[in-house]
Amino acid sequence: MEKEFIFKNRSISSCLLAAYKLLGENMKGILQSTWLPVLLCGIFSGVFITTNIRLPEVQAFGTDHPALFLTIYTVSLIGMTVCSLWASSRLLSMLNGQTRSKNLLRMFLLYLCNLVIVVIIGGVLVVGALLCARHLKVNLMQFAADNWLVLAGVLLVAFIVMLPLVYVNMRYLFSSEASYFIDFPKAYGTGFRHIGFIFLTTLLGGIIGGIIGGIICLPFTILMVSQTFSAIGMLNGDPSGMPDYFATLHGATFGLTTMLLMYLSMYLMLVYMFLYGSIEQQREERRQSALRSTTDETSDPQTPTNTPSHDTAFNHPIR
Predict the structure, then answer these.
(1) Which stretches of the chain score pLDDT less than 50?
(2) From CA 15, how far away is CA 280, in angstroms rounded?
(3) Using the 8-state DSSP alphabet, how is residue 238 labeled?
(4) Which of 19, 72, 195, 246 is an S-S bond match for 242, by CB 3.0 to 4.6 Å?
């Protein structure tokens, strides 16, 4: 990956294109490095989705062996999370040159930090909705139905508030000395000042990812629709129209879909990496410009000044 550089001033389209080129040129190395956690994540996700399918044989197994069923459900859910973080840390090690163990630890810490933030924001929103519903003397579902536009606006504000976390997260991953919560106020402020850049990149990346993800999920969607209509028919007294191997097919399809979606998420991670590098380069250029201006004002006009070259600032290749 030595052909690309993280710290370079790029436009939104350049970030998307650079991530595409980087992923394409290094796909073989990425597959060799990440195939095991991706495969395990696919297996765990297939088992997890199978435990959630409404088929008579699955429900009968859960009724006859509740402890075993709950254990399989929990282990598969935890396995999905661990393997996804494992795969991301493998990719990160190819980008920042740090050890796999260190990147894995930082990925786990980052996951926990973001989980805390999401729980806090979600808790505030839920408590606020409950208090409003209680004040209006209606249940929560009725309050949501009557005030959906207000709730949509609140969710939009929450989404905008969380956008600077993109910069905070990438800075934590690519700066070996960074501390998430100690550096959070300053890093969040930097991300908020570039919120337009982050929003548009997220929007365009989300559109591209949504289109590709929709195509990837199409086979599983077809199976889900078929199973849903079968479940509706069973509620009306009709026999199940699903073949005996449907649960296996359902789980295998979802597992393969998850594996493909993981590599799609790696592309989006590369997009955010280049976004972070662009923001850092813009900050460095402004710092260098301010330094030159200060030096020009305080030095003799005939005395040359030794200012760090812009070409060497943050010129770190991806290893």
Answers:
(1) 1-4, 303-319
(2) 13
(3) P
(4) 246
